[in-house]
Design goal:
Low-confidence stretches: none
Largest sheet: none
Helix content: over 70%
Number of helices: 2
Number of domains: 1
Order of helices and strands: HH
Distance between the termini: 145 Å
Structural class: mainly alpha
Length: 124
Amino acid sequence: MTVDAWRLASLGLSLVLLFTLGAAGGCWLADRHYRPLLDTVNTDLATAKLARDNLETLAGEQSRKLGELVTASDERARQAAQAVADAKELAKPDYAAANRLLQERIGGDPAQAAAAIIDQELGL
């Protein structure tokens, strides 16, 4: 190889080394600048994920409790309807007796008639 070729190769190698050092220095500076920002963002991300998971858990629990309340409400409505039906069934003899007493006409003063009907019902 000639001297000019060696000089050209040495110049090319020097340029490559200089670009490599510049790129390494740029990476080092970028790392020093962005690392604190990345750490902060990663902490915020972890906090947001934790909060999201917590909210999902709470929403699931709230949904489950709401379902339980709806089921309990339906059960109470069914029991209330059954109680009304039972009360109507138990009241049938009393309604029949009241209707029978109303159909019996006792003449005279309405107060005496009412007293007589009550006395008759009570067996006095």
